[in-house]
Amino acid sequence: MITSKTSFLALIGNPVSHSLSPIMQNAAIQYLGLDLIYMAIPCENEDLEIVINSLKKMNCKGLNVTIPFKQKVFDICSEISPVAKKVKAINTLKLNDNKDWIGTNTDIDGFIYPLKNLNLAKKTALILGSGGAARSVIQGLIELKLSKITIISRNNNSLDGLISNFKYDIDIEGLLNTNNEIDNLIQETDLIINTTPVGMSNTTNYDVIPFGQSFWSAINSKTIVYDLIYNPSPTPFLKFCDKKGCMTIDGTNMLIAQGAQSLSFWTNGLEVPFEVMHDALKKYL
Ligand code: NAP
Question: Which of 44, 83, 149, 233 has the fewest Cβ atoms within 10 angstroms?
C-alpha cells in the first residue's frame, strides 16, 4: 500500500514511456514487502540538472538512468564506481547519507548473467555495433576472460574509441563491416553478440538482420548468438541463427538481471527475486 511514508525509485531518460522497468521493479518491490514505488520520469535535456537536484531533496532513494543521460550524469555524482568509469556510462544512481549521488553501472552484470555458466574463458567473440551497449558487453567479456574480441561496425570513429578504451585489457580489434576477413571470423568464432538496434520493434529495421542475410552465409551451428534486444523476443536475427542450429540468447535476462542488481544496490544488498521480475514481464508482454 502507498502511504505517506512511501519513498520512490525512478527511471529517468527520454523517451521512457516504452520502458518495462516499472513493471518488473514494482513486482519485485511488492514481493519483498518494501515501502517503495518505482516510476518513470521523462526529462528534457535542458531540465536534467534541475530535475536531478530536486529529486535529491525529496524522498527519492535511487534512479535508473537511460538514453540520453548515461554520460551526462557523471558530473552530478560525488562518487562513481570503477566499472562505470571504465565503460564511461552510469545506469544507476543512489543517494548516500549525505544526500549525494553515487553512480554505478549494472549493465555489465546484467549482460554476463545468461553467460555465466557457459565456460567462455579463452573463447573468441564478435560484437556487432560500436555504441554505448558495446562498452558494457566488452567489459563483461573481459570479466568472463575471453581471449579475443572483434568488433564489427559501420562506424570507424566509434570503433577507434572502443579499441583505445579497452586495448590494455584484452586482445581486441575493430573491423568495418565491409572487411574481407569477416567470413572466416564468423565461421570460427564461439560467440556473436548483436548490440545494434537492427531487428528491434517500432523501428524501420524491425524485420531485418544486422548487415543483411548474405553477411551470415558462413555461420556455424556451434556458435552461441546473443541479441541484446528484448522486444521482439526472439528477433529476426535470433530466428535466423536458431534455424542454422545455433544456441540463441535474447536480451530479456540481461534486462531483468541489470534491474535486479540496481534494486539490490538501492536496498544495500537485498537478494532480489529474478523469477518474480521475469514472471511480471511475461504477464505484461
Ligand atoms: P547506440 O549507442 O545508439 O549504438 C548502436 C550501435 O549500432 C552503433 O554502433 C550504430 O552504428 C549501430 N547501428 C545502428 N543501426 C545500424 C544498422 N542499421 N546497421 C548496422 N549498425 C547499426 O545504442 P546502444 O545504447 O548501444 O543500444 C543498442 C541496442 O542494445 C538497443 O537495441 C538497446 O535496446 C539494446 N540494449 C539492451 C539492453 C538489455 O538490457 N537487454 C541494455 C542496453 C542496450 P552507427 O554509429 O553507425 O549509427
Answer: 44
Tell me which of 56, 57, 61, 70 is the catalytic residue.
70
pLDDT given at position 11: 98
Between strands 77-80 and 101-104, the pairing is: parallel
Residues of the chain within CATH 3.40.50.720 domain(s) are: 109-250
Confirm whether 86 is a catalytic residue: no
Distance of CA 148 to the CA centre of its chain: 21
The CATH number assigned to the domain with range 109-250 reads 3.40.50.720
- pLDDT per position as a tens digit, 37-82: 999 999 999 999 999 999 999 999 999 999 999 999 999 999 999 9
Grid coordinates representing 128? 556487432
Ligand 1: atom nearest CA of 197 is 32
> Which part of the chain is CATH 3.40.50.10860?
7-105+254-282
Helix, strand counts (H, E) of the chain: 10, 12
- Spacing of C-alpha 275 from chain mean position: 19
The atom of ligand 1 lying closest to the CA of 258 is 40
pTM for this prediction = 0.95
CATH classification code of 7-105+254-282:
3.40.50.10860
